[in-house]
Amino acid sequence: MFTGLFVLGIIAFIGIAVFVLPVGTWRDQSVDLDQRRAQLDELQRVNNELEAETLRLETPDGIREAAREDYGLIQSGENRSTVLPLPALPTDLPDGWPYNVVTQIIAARTTPS
Asked: What is the C-alpha to C-alpha distance for residues 13 and 76, in angstroms, rounded to an integer?
């Protein structure tokens, strides 16, 4: 009788080890698989964009446009003019009117909402 219970316990333990314990791993793999699919979709999207850019750069118009954007290439007869960004406005203004109003306006615009 004891041997039968022992054998039944061993069989139950093997059944749990084979059928119940792997369920947690299976769920974890399912979540990991979903994450990998999302990563794969993003990589395929980026690859498609890069392929489209490569195909565009294989055309004469694409090469010309890239040379203009990246290296500032100009055609003969064109004039190149560079526009620099405006310098930062001074914020250390004197006290008194109208400078105190301007200082308040500058402070209001630079304060995050």
From this structure: 84
DSSP secondary structure code for residue 19 in this structure: I
For residues 67 and 73, the answer to whether their CB atoms sit within 8 Å is yes
Cα angle 39, 41, 43; round to 5: 70
Q: Which two structure tokens, joined as six digits, stand for 7?
A: 């054998």
Against a cut of 0.70, is the pTM above it? Answer: no
In angstroms, rounded to a whole number, what is the distance separating the alpha carbons of residues 12 and 22? 15
> Is residue 113 very low, low, confident or very high in pLDDT (cuts 50, 70, 90)?
low
For residue 12, give Cα distances in angstroms to 1, 2, 26, 37, 67: 16, 15, 21, 37, 73
